[in-house]
Amino acid sequence: MTVPLNTVPLSAHRRIAEELPDLGYTDAWTGEAGGYDGFTPLALAAAWSRSLRVGSGVVPVQTRGPALLAMTVATLAEAAPGRVVVGVGSSGPPFVTRINGIPFEHPYRKVRDTVRFLKAALAGEYVMGDFDSFSIEGFRLASVPRPAPPVMVGALRPQMLRLAGSEADGLVTNFLAADDVPRVVEAMGPEGKAKEVVARIFVCPTRDRDYARAQGRAMLGSILNARTYSAFHDWLGRSDVLAASHRAWAAGDFRGAGAAVPDRLVDELLVHGSPEECRAHVARYVEAGVVTPLLAVIPAPEFGAGPDGMLSALRALAPVS
Predict the structure, then answer these.
(1) What is the CATH number of domain 10-206+275-317?
(2) E-state strands within 126-176
(3) Cα angle at 74 between 8 and 199, to 5 degrees?
């Protein structure tokens, strides 16, 4: 499950986190952009549930120094031994530069070097020396987490996907269709076949198709025209499908860019329908190679608003034996 849950204040998450394992949910993961930070919700989820695995999916490598990132992960891992995963990624200029004032430079090298640093530091090694994108004069964690948390990479395209397969412990990805998964896994290389693949899947459990597609277009219009995701879907073979949306966006017609996303693509990227139909669609991702389907639930009119409505939706979507 993606946390914080959409439209639910963080202060209201405790009773939801306590119930999630009983419903069959195993994990709580965050993202990090312009809203919540990537670690506070994980610390709360780990404290409120004794079994949920918690992971950052993902935090940018540019906005924290390597040692601070290792210290944060190690602290969380000491509080929740064996239940922590750190996912890191490159993010982009809107988050790194425009709101944090940090130059967005050498994203691939910075992610690769941070992965190498984290794996060494979290294993208890003394890290010193020059990486391609930063230098470390000497660092060792004061308290080494046991076991060492896995380090995953947020990736979309071939170079970063190969990094996830060759040097990291797995992949975190999102905004892809179930049919896209085999190509993404293949791009991780031969070593990637044995790695964990986490995919964030957006779900709106409603039978109101028009409502779901409206929610999907409101989200996808900007996402699919962002630099990283536009290139990702071009690589997946959707340049022609999204050409009209790209033209509208370039002309400043942001609403038109969303309206130009075809119904079929909305239906592939946003899981919707009855809870049973949603579970069946999520199962397609697993069959295609996703190890951990990570749900991001969008409120649906059938379940109402607020914490009670979200909890009702989660109960309806819960894995069934």
Answers:
(1) 3.20.20.30
(2) 127-130, 135-139, 151-154, 170-174
(3) 50
From-to residues of CATH 3.20.20.30 in the chain: 10-206+275-317
237: exposed, middle or buried (Cβ count in 10 Å: 0-12, 13-18, 19+): exposed
pTM strictly above 0.90: yes
Ranges of residues in the chain whose predicted pLDDT is under 70: 321
| pLDDT tens-digit readout, 154-175 | 999 999 999 999 999 999 999 9
Residue 58, both tokens: 């993902």
Residues β-bridged to residue 292: 198
Which residues have a Cβ under 8 Å from the Cβ of 141 and sit 6 or more positions away? 70, 71, 74, 121, 122, 124
- Residue entry with tokens 């130009």: 260
Structure tokens at 217: 């277009």
Residue 53: enclosing H or E segment and its boundaries?
strand 53-60
CA distance 152 to 168: 5
Residue 134: name the closest of 164, 161, 102 by CA. 102
CA–CA gap between residue 122 and residue 147 (Å, rounded): 9
DSSP one-letter string for 213-241: HHHHHHHHHHHTTSHHHHHHHHHTT-TTT
